[in-house]
Design goal:
By secondary structure, the protein is mostly helical. The chain has nine helices and no strands. It has a domain at 21-54 and 103-179. Helix 2 (30-52) packs antiparallel against helix 5 (102-122) and helix 5 (102-122) packs antiparallel against helix 6 (126-142).
């Protein structure tokens, strides 16, 4: 009987262009990423704090869900007409899922904004925090609310792309290696770990 020696071949590696590595993974740009992260984090923390400390208790408290219900009703009114601001599929979600559970969504929004803000300010799980912040921005945009959401969505997208260095001047530098994420410094133009 003949033995066949099967070698496990490493999957092909996709190499990152030098400019991409410089913009999104070079710690020399950490000051820029920190400023972006702090700005977005501050905006989220402030928005969530205002909801949490609202004296009428329409977000968190005795009347939780009141503000969300009003917001959702306004979004549903924008779902009709010749040029609706809210897509039909999203209006269906708002009407059948979000509106009946307005109190739950109220708490999720208030505490979600605070948690995203704190995580970004501390530089803790920056990529995940930016992703969930962007998800909230997208939800507001889909509901027909513009305000600061387009800007924050763009910045959140950039923070997700730059997650490796966006938290370099933050807790990510020490926390992520505990989760198996290697944050070794690699200078622009140097070969990566998969180079041969």
């Amino acid at each position: 009987m003949t033995q066949v020696n099967v070698r496990s071949a490493a999957p092909p590696a996709l190499h990152e262009p030098a400019i991409s590595r410089f913009l999104f993974a070079d710690p020399r740009l950490a000051p820029l990423w920190t400023l972006l992260r702090l700005y977005v984090g501050y905006e989220w923390l402030l928005a969530g704090w205002e909801k949490l400390t609202n004296p009428a208790g329409v977000w968190v408290g005795a009347k939780a869900g009141t503000a969300v219900s009003g917001f959702l009703q306004g979004a549903l009114h924008k779902a009709s007409g010749d040029h609706p601001d809210v897509s039909g599929w999203y209006a269906t979600f708002l009407e059948r899922v979000a509106l009946p559970n307005a109190a739950t969504f109220s708490y999720l929004v208030a505490y979600g904004e605070i948690l995203v803000g704190l995580a970004l300010i501390l530089g803790l799980f920056t990529g995940l925090a930016a992703f969930f912040g962007g998800l909230m921005n997208a939800s507001y945009l889909l509901a027909g609310t513009v305000s600061v959401n387009p800007l924050l969505f763009i910045l959140a997208t950039w923070l997700v792309l730059g997650w490796r260095v966006a938290g370099w001047w933050g807790l990510d530098r020490w926390v992520l290696p505990r989760f198996g994420v290697l944050l070794g410094i690699q200078r622009a133009g140097e070969p990566g770990p998969n180079s041969r």
